[in-house]
Amino acid sequence: MGRLDGAVAVVTGAASGIGAACAERLSADGAQVVTVDITEGVDYALDVRDEGAVEEAFASVMSHFGRLDAVVHAAGVIGGGPVHLLDSDEWDRVLDVNLKGTFLVDKYSAIHMLAQGRGSIVNIASIEGLEGTEGGSAYNASKGGVVMLTKCMAIDYGRRGLRVNCICPGGIDTPMLHSIADADGMGFYREKLREEHLLGRFGRPSEIAAAAAFLASDDASFITGHALVVDGGFTAGLRVGLLEQLGM
Ligand SMILES: NC(=O)c1ccc[n+]([C@@H]2O[C@H](COP(=O)([O-])OP(=O)(O)OC[C@H]3O[C@@H](n4cnc5c(N)ncnc54)[C@H](O)[C@@H]3O)[C@@H](O)[C@H]2O)c1
User: Fold this and answer.
1) Ligand 1 centroid, distance to 92 Cα (angstroms)
2) If you take atom 41 of ligand 1, which residue's CA is the nearest one?
3) Does residue 166 register a pLDDT over 90?
4) With a 6 A CB cut-off, is 167 part of the ligand 1 pocket?
């Protein structure tokens, strides 16, 4: 028996990377999964910045399935740079997709979940929503906003049967990570970033999906308002090479 048997789940960003892995994992765990992405090849091709399209998609899911048990919101974009070099258009793009998109997906998830008195929302934030990074600016601000939105929704809806959590992944092996780490002259960045993960490697999308399936399911029935760090130890603390000095 799967932990999500009989559940209806919506996964956004489902055409690639973490979202695709979440769709696969929730399905393997027994859920009927509805996929959403801006690209074709999913059940609902829409832009999460488009309120009308998001509203319509959730209404359509409800009229088709009659219930909505879980939402994993993974659609997002990378972007940013040092503030004095950052165009306001780029700021708007990143904030609109990552934060406004989360607001809209969560809003229409919550409306239907409140009506049925139960449901679980899992937002994919980032460790960059918990800590600053060089040139992070718009991306980190957007993900910090996702963490805070998650907590506020958990407060507002806990007594009405909704659980709202987010996952803060470290570097995960997806097209988004490769779009930066594989760029010309970025080899140093890729190696340093990988090294900062205490497990010595980037994460796999399936490792985020496992956490998402857990939070989406009743196995996490007493967990809400939580930002679950899944980062191979990246944020555990400082590592300056003492172990090497000790021959370890
Ligand atoms: N890969 C990492 O290292 C990492 C780390 C922390 C957090 N995250 C977050 O995980 C989530 C998934 O990222 P990923 O690494 O799988 O990236 P990805 O680029 O592989 O997948 C992102 C998906 O979101 C979709 N998308 C983008 N803009 C959209 C829009 N406006 N409307 C609908 N769909 C849209 C894309 O088409 C794509 O399928 C993102 O929110 C990202 O910020 C990724």
Assistant:
1) 17
2) 76
3) yes
4) no
Asked if 153 contacts 136 with a C-beta cutoff of 8 angstroms, the reply is: no
Answer left, alpha or beta for residue 203, where phi above 0 means left and psi between -120 and 50 means alpha: beta
Percent of the chain with pLDDT over 70: 100
Which atom, in ligand 1's list, is nearest to the CA of 179? 19
User: Which domains does the chain show, CATH number per domain?
Assistant: 8-245 (3.40.50.720)
Q: What's the order of all strands across the beta sheet hosting 70-73?
A: 44-45, 32-37, 8-12, 70-73, 119-124, 162-169, 227-230
Ligand 1 neighbourhood includes 16 CB (under 6 angstroms): yes
Q: What are the φ/ψ torsions at residue 223 (nearest 5 degrees)? A: -115, 115
How many CB atoms lie under 10 A from the CB of residue 200?
Answer: 10
Beta-bridge partners for 165: 122
Q: Is 19 in the pocket of ligand 1 (CB under 6 A)?
A: yes
Distance (angstroms) between ligand 1 centre and the Cα of 155 equals 26
Q: Which atom number of ligand 1 is nearest to the Cα of residue 78?
A: 43
Contact 201, 121 (CB under 8 A): no
pLDDT digits (tens, 9 = 90+) for 61-106: 999 999 999 999 999 999 999 999 999 999 999 999 999 999 999 9
